[in-house]
Amino acid sequence: MNRTERIVLLGAGGHAKVVISTLEAAGRSVAAVLDDDRGKWGQQLLDVPVTGPLSEAEAGGYDFGVVAVGDNVTRKAIAQVLRLLWLSVVHPRAIVHDSVTLGAGTVIFAGAVVQPGAVLGNHVIVNTGATVDHDCVLADFVHVAPGAHLAGHVAVGEGSLIGIGSSVIPGIKIGSWTMVGAGGVVLKDLPDSVLAFGVPARVKRKRS
Ligand SMILES: CC(C)(COP(=O)(O)OP(=O)(O)OC[C@H]1O[C@@H](n2cnc3c(N)ncnc32)[C@H](O)[C@@H]1OP(=O)(O)O)[C@@H](O)C(=O)NCCC(=O)NCCS
């Protein structure tokens, strides 16, 4: 007899709601959400119970997990300490070309488009309506925020956030743990660990 798969989400914030809705749109359901904020235990996130702390993930009999946290540092911290099979999730109304490589735990939300030859690492987020064009390379824990656009052959290093509504021209290299602020237009390469914003985007300060 087939057993129903059990999927657990780590993190019970707003981002987790979108992961739940994406899984439901794809015909899958979430068994439980875990979060270390005990004030959330016993509550429902959409229709899914928040049952306890993250430490319950490994012994909970779950088949798959998704780290459902938008913050890149926190998502990496959780993914590194828990041993689960990480599920990658694509909304049925996202467009992801067959040639695209998706890492474990990577989520692609509604309206996103990922074009041929793109390579996305583990635990990447391509958020609502964002686009990642041909041959882009996104390292682990990158977050492309809603409505952001990467042109072809853009490379983004580990843990960087491409902020909401920003744009990156072709062939640009963005370092690791860098943040492009909302609406920024990136015309030149950006180094590791900086905050840059504006049109054109300029480095404003280092990030720790
Ligand atoms: C850049 C950002 C992180 C704020 O940084 P901050 O250091 O806290 O900046 P502040 O809010 O203190 O603003 C400082 C100045 O920068 C300006 N500024 C802030 N963000 C800006 C942006 N994205 N573009 C242009 N100017 C910006 C502010 O207007 C302010 O200008 P002022 O001093 O003339 O008033 C934030 O504004 C941002 O863009 N976040 C994007 C978050 C995002 O996309 N998340 C994805 C969620 S799914």
Tell me what the structure shows.
This protein is mainly β. It is 11% helix and 29% strand. It has two helices and 24 strands. It has helices spanning 14-25, 72-81; strands spanning 7-10, 32-34, 44-45, 48-52, 64-67, 89-90, 95-96, 101-102, 107-108, 113-114, 119-120, 125-126, 131-132, 137-138, 143-144, 149-150, 155-156, 161-162, 167-168, 173-174, 179-180, 185-186, 194-197, 202-206. It has an eight-stranded mixed β-sheet with strand order 6-9-12-15-18-21-23-24, with helices on one face. A six-stranded parallel β-sheet has the order 7-10-13-16-19-22, with no helix packed on it. A hairpin with a 2-residue loop joins strand 3 (44-45) and strand 4. It starts with 6 loop residues before the first strand and ends with a strand. The relative contact order is 0.10. The mean pLDDT is 97. It binds coenzyme A. Coenzyme A is lined by residues 70, 127, 145-146, 163-164, 181-184, 195, 197-198.
